[in-house]
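New to this. Please check both lines:
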Amino acid sequence: MKHALAVVASLWLAGCGGAGGGAAPAAPGSFGKAEGGVDGRRFLGEDADKAKKAGAADSEVVAVDAGAPGDRISGLVNVPENDCVLLIARASQTVDDVDLFVYGDDGTAFGSDEAPNKTPSLLVCPPHPKRLFAVARIAAGHGMVAVGAQRVARRDAAAVGKALDARGRPGEAAGRVAGWPGLDESIADHRRALGGTWQEVRRTALPVDARIPSRVSAVVDAERCLDLLVLPSDEVSHLDIAVLDESGRIVGRGVASGRERFAVVCSRTKENITLEVRPQAGRGIAAVVMARSKTPTLGELPPDAMQLELSPLGDLKATSSQLEETLANRGYGKAKTLASGSLTLGQRTSSSVTLPAGCNRIDVVGGRPLIGLKAWLWAADGALLARGEDHRQVTLFACGGGGSGRLDVEPLTRPGPYAAQLRAEGAVAPVLVKHPLAASRLLDRMAARGVLRRGNQAGAPQEMLVDDAHRRGIDVLVPIGRCVDVDAALGPGATGVELRAVDSESADELELSAGSESAALRICALDSGRTLKARVEITVGVGSTTALVATRMLSPRP
């Protein structure tokens, strides 16, 4: 009996030991943080295959993530400079609406698809940078979103774009241009007013949006001019157009003629340019019509048709005379020559100068065959007063107490003769004289944007102490049907300025602009039906300094 109880007890203890003291059986699945990520191909697969059948390469997953309304899923993609790229965003069933945007490293927008659906598709073709930044934004719903990219040869771009109904595909908006009411009549009226003999080289429809600038490339042939005419659709108004050179510098801005805008760009050498178009209100299409002059000599242009020159079209005497006439029409007096001579490529030429007190305009002009100028103006103590560079002419705004200084000039592309001419600006606000470098940058920014014709029209900018540890700001009131231009420039000791305009009532972001030394933005109340109260926030990237901030009320042409 004792032996039987001992056996039972030993078996019972063995059972308890097996339950609590030994190794537990293997669990059906492991637990803990998982390695790897979600396979985005499951969302991209069907449409990626459709694009591949039309001629696209295999799909690459650029980014995949989960999100809710307002969240962004983004990634970078390398694209060979001679190929196109198809970018698509696809989502899980619980996402109702996705938007897709594509940018370059410098922030240039290369397209957007904000249609009210969950299948945004964009086709980006040359010219484009070697790297693009794609960002998908969830507009409605929540769930998983994947962004995919597929390489597309130029010859297959139309077929691939059509297969997915992609924005930016060749011929997407051509139908709208072909059926544009009164387009041919508008072009004919423009050519008659312009004068000269022109040959149309391109007619295209450009999608435009008030939130981002749209761009189209063009070529100005040697010894020719290119007429750029932009006509907006009914959905957009108050167009701004700018012509940029290959380095991204603004060569000039367009002239208003009713709702149309145009610019005439000339060059002695073959040059690549970019036309930037942005409406102040609305989203729609702009017809861009380009025409080349048939002969090197233009017919007589109307007084307000500013001819933008990428390089000098005449000798130094002719260039100086043309500038003298232009500035005389703006109210400037006769120029005083500060320095002149011949520039050698790769060598900087320095000249001692005497500067009057107040603010003065210094124009450094070149003559054939010189192309490209860079200039620096220094005070006697070595402080930088102004700096600039351009293809044909550099304008420096020199403010301060006056005295001796030094002007340095250097050619950029080709050597040739130059002359530096000084003209007084007249009475200006004391704050401009107090902060010479910030004043120079501010006046240069405002003049380049066409906000003022003379430096003494800047009014009295606000002084503002800024640094990289604080956010500053000003309140701006924009009446109905008006715009306010806000310009800011840094003095010495800081770099990287950002302006951000926010609706004071809704807290919505209205505009964002940034630059290394100066920045500007424009706030408009054209379609809001109310006076707009805005707050413009000002931040700097590195350092601390005194910034000058100027506001100017504008009445844009419709």
Summary: The radius of gyration is 30 Å. The first helix runs from residue 2 to 20. The chain has four domains: 41-172, 176-309, 316-426, 462-554.
